[in-house]
Amino acid sequence: MNAGWLKQNLLTAIFSLFITGYALIIIISPALGPTDDFIFLRTLQSGEPILYYSADFPYYDTAGLGRFTPLAAMEYNFFGFFSSSPSPFWYYFFHAVQFVLLIVLLIKILKHFTESRLLIYASTILISLLPIFTIPFFRLQMNERDVIFFFAAFLLCYIVYLKNQKTTYLTLGVLFANLTIYYKETAFIAVGAFAFSYLLLSWNPVRSSPAERDATSNGIKTKFFNGLLLLSSFAYIAIYYFYIYPNLGESTYISAIYNKYLVLFKNIFNYAFFSDPIIILLLLPLTAWRAYKVFIKREETRPFYDSLLTAGSAYALAFFVLNIYGPYYMLPAYIFAVPALIYFFGQPETKTFFWKSTVFITALVLIFNTLPTGLHYLTYYKYLPINFNKTLDFLVQNINSKYPSERADIFMDGVDRGSGRGAYFVMAEFLQFKGLSEKRFDLKSNVETENISPLESKIQFPFTVFQRDEIDTIKSGDYLIVSPQSTKINPSENYLESLKKDYDLVFQTRSPLAFPNINLKTLVKYLLSKRMSPAQKSGGALINENLMNWPNYYVFVKR
User: Fold this and answer.
1) Are 46 and 85 in contact (CB under 8 A)?
2) What φ, ψ does residue 128 adopt, rounded to 5°?
3) Which of 47, 108, 110, 319 minimizes the number of CB atoms within 10 Å of its CB?
């Protein structure tokens, strides 16, 4: 038996086991959690479809918030055809199937950039363990999951089309590109940047590298393909301008209450040294370097590979323009970034001290910061909905037995009436969905806040936390819930013990396999928190002091 054959098949077996195990974890103990999952309650779980832009959508005016993602969550409606209240299992089963198909697409793409099976498998496993990946696949309604999937399908069609020019691949490629555009607002930027960059860099074939100078990659059919992609991007802009822009409300999803420059600095730091070092420390510098080589030094172009860099960078930079951060926002950029990085870092021109040092620094950030965070979010979003539902079931049962004819008051520890209103809103929705009438409980807050924002919802709840700005005092018999949504210092054993002086702990959840949120960012934030004044923290320098972000719930009752 050939040793090389044995090694290759052993790699494939290990990789297959990893992918199978990952997919199975996605579908284990599925449940709706305290995130955007509340949207399912008055829609699919009540026999109605999720239609964000319908006048009958029960929660908020999506267009008025400046959002235009008409395909968002549409895949879940498929299960509504078979059940008036689908089990959450089917939503996560869809995620698992999509995950496996995405891995297949990614492998097929990377085979066009490297022959190393080890590199292909290692790159794929690495991406699947980053927070940008674990969050969208272990949470519902993350559009980035759909965008990266259809970006992968688009890119594979494009690669194959460059080689054989079949109309089928052009049609499918344009279709997949358009699907991404209407799943996420920023997708049109990547599609347009890719097409424009390819047209620009391939316009003069003489300047193209020998590998990209053939008739198919620079021919009229390829230009037609890119023209359709560019037209698709402009069509999205036009639709947004005429349909969304005139309907913008006073509050949009990119509005901020903190100093924009402080927020921008924090966003850059978070993307670079927390969730996306591959994009910020490798992709963006490499894109700038290639632009310098092509436009300043007038060196040969590599239209396809350079366009991959441009598309990935354009997608990533959009979030700096919007000045918003999310540890999963940049996921779609990786479908362009990874193949391009594999190609360019395999070239002699990147074998320099600078690029080797950059790769080394990126590797350190991945090992000590990003990968541990990805594992934390994987376990966090597995436990969070399970623990949340256990807590709700206890509250419903306990309130029904202890307060058969009274209205119980519920406080959420460390959750204010401003930025934390969403947590109260979700709590209210789920308690009512589980059968507890709004006349049986009230939600209140004892946390001071200076940033009171209106509840952007069509639903007007008769709960105190939404009706007035004053804080309330916890009285005997009231419930105090210590939850993962708390912005206080993470509930340690000492903190929980201190509460027991005045409260009875009547319920708690446990998460024995949860991976702790231990990384360099947590350490830096902890050290900074010791030196910051309360004014600096409230000014946006340290908004959330819940550093460990543990997925447990504790229910206390005031003595």
Assistant:
1) yes
2) -70, -15
3) 47
Q: CA–CA distance from 304 to each of 211, 219, 255 (Å)?
A: 10, 13, 36
Question: What is the reported pLDDT for 63?
Answer: 86
Examine the pLDDT at 7 and tell me if it is beyond 80. Answer: no
User: What number of CA atoms fall less than 13 Å from residue 459's CA on the CB side?
Assistant: 18
Average pLDDT over residues 165-192: 97
Quick one: pLDDT band at residue 257, thresholds 50, 70, 90? low
Instruction: Report the run of H or E that residue 506 belongs to, with start and end.
Output: strand 503-508
Residue 531 pLDDT more than 70? no
Tokens for 120?
Answer: 């292909």
> Per-residue DSSP letters for 326-373?
-TTTTGGGHHHHHHHHHHHTTSGGG-SHHHHHHHHHHHHHIIIIIHHH
Helix (H) or strand (E) holding 504: strand 503-508
Residue 428 identity (one-letter amino acid): A
Which amino acid makes up residue 1? M
Position 111 pLDDT exceeds 80: yes
Q: What are phi and psi of 235, to 5 degrees?
A: -65, -40
**How far are the Cα atoms of 69, 191, 471 from residue 180, in angstroms, in the given order?**
9, 9, 44
Q: What DSSP line would sit under 111-178, residue for residue?
A: TTT---HHHHHHHHHHHHTSHHHHHHHHSSS-HHHHHHHHHHHHHHHHHHHHHH--HHHHHHHHHHHH
**Among residues 461, 550, 547, 520, which one has the least CA distance to residue 42?**
461
- What distances in angstroms separate CA 83 from CA 36, 46, 78, 104, one per listed residue? 21, 10, 10, 30
Which residues, 6+ apart, have CB-to-CB distance to 41 below 8 Å?
A: 32, 429, 430, 433
Compute CA distances 411 → 255, 404, 471, 531, whole Å: 27, 19, 11, 30
**DSSP, res 503:** E
What is the average per-residue pLDDT within 477-495?
82
Distance CA 86, CA 45 (A): 6
Calculate mean pLDDT across residues 465-489: 88
Alpha-carbon torsion, ordered 170, 175, 176, 179, to 10 deg: 160
Adjacency order of strands within the sheet including 479-482: 441-444, 408-412, 479-482, 554-558, 503-508
Which residues 6+ apart lie within 8 Å of 242 measured at CB? none
Number of neighbouring beta carbons within 10 Å of residue 91: 22
**pLDDT at position 522:** 77
Distances (CA, A) of 453 to 198, 416, 417, 429, 449: 45, 11, 8, 19, 10
| 3-class DSSP state of 257 | coil
Cα distance between residue 497 and residue 495, in whole Å: 5
Which contacts (CB < 8 Å, 24+ apart) does range 290-298 have? 290/344, 294/201, 298/207
**Residues 22-47, mean pLDDT to the nearest whole number:** 96
Q: Tell me how far apart the alpha carbons of residues 71 and 52 are, in angstroms, rounded to a whole number.
A: 9
Helix/strand/coil for 409: strand
